[in-house]
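Protein data:
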Amino acid sequence: MTFKRFPIIVIVLLLGAFAGWLYVEFNRGGKGFGVVDVNTADINELDALPYITPAAAQAIVDGRPFIRVDDLIRVSGIGEKTLERIRPYVTVQ
């Protein structure tokens, strides 16, 4: 191996490690990237969801119970666009 290729190999390895870290972060529970039951999650779990503000998290708690995920549309601060964005992260059981 020549030293000319060494920096390229290091960069590729670092990018691969970063991609692996991102995959784990976005697919594990916690930090808002796991699936959360909106009827049982506490306000901190709801607030950690992407696209959900603290006010919307409180409105979700105040609006319980929900029968379907689509019922979140009646929550102040959650419109059609936000609902579609959070759909992969929420469930109703």
Observations:
- The longest strand covers residues 36-37.
- The first helix runs from residue 6 to 27.
